[in-house]
Design brief:
This is GNAT family N-acetyltransferase. GO terms for molecular function: acyltransferase activity, transferring groups other than amino-acyl groups. Keywords: Transferase. The longest helix is centred in the first third of the chain and has 16 residues. The chain has one domain: Aminopeptidase (3-Layer(aba) Sandwich). By secondary structure, the protein is an alpha+beta fold.
């Protein structure tokens, strides 16, 4: 597996990451606690509108001197992680995106990408990562296993951007 910073022209490689996933449980925050709810979603891949927005988001992060790292297997991208370039509260950086292709999940790739971006954030002065995670059980449980906890309270601005997400803090 090769990990490397992506150039701006490579940000469109995001579309090659296989997003498919069967979801049967999602988290909601109730009384400041995580609550699992049965909901079913069959995520077959990227919606074109969503992909365009996420690619623009990556371009914006890149243009603000953020860090975007790809994981490659035989010159094919299988994972991506991005980090905003600024500190929140003088100690926190936002892990903006983390995607791992379907066939590469549960093999340590996500953890490796988080470890790499955590090291980058630490070198820039961060002590923790802010994560606005999709409420899918697999995603939230992944971050919790890494040691993340509910952001209490969540960052007001970031919460307004993604109020349905689960907002977490991961010490690094």
């Amino acid at each position: 597996m090769e990990f490397r910073w992506l150039s701006r022209k490579e940000l469109s490689l995001l579309k090659e990451i296989d997003r498919k996933e069967l979801v049967d449980e999602v988290y909601y925050i109730r009384n400041h606690e995580l609550r699992l709810v049965k909901e079913y979603y069959d995520i077959d891949g990227w919606l074109e509108s969503e992909l365009a927005l996420y690619t623009q988001r990556l371009e914006s992060i890149f243009d603000r001197d953020g860090i975007i790292i790809g994981a490659f297997e035989k010159d094919h991208i299988v994972g991506l992680v991005s980090l905003e370039s600024y500190l929140i509260n003088g100690r926190t950086m936002k892990l903006d995106m983390l995607y791992v292709s379907h066939d590469y999940r549960h093999k340590g790739l996500g953890r490796s990408l988080v470890d790499i971006i955590s090291q980058e954030a630490n070198e820039l002065g961060a002590k923790e990562l802010y994560i606005s995670a999709t409420p899918v059980r697999n995603t939230v449980d992944f971050y919790l296993r890494l040691g993340a906890e509910l952001a209490n309270p969540p960052d007001i601005y970031l919460f307004e951007l993604e109020p349905l997400d689960i907002h977490l803090i991961l010490p690094i």
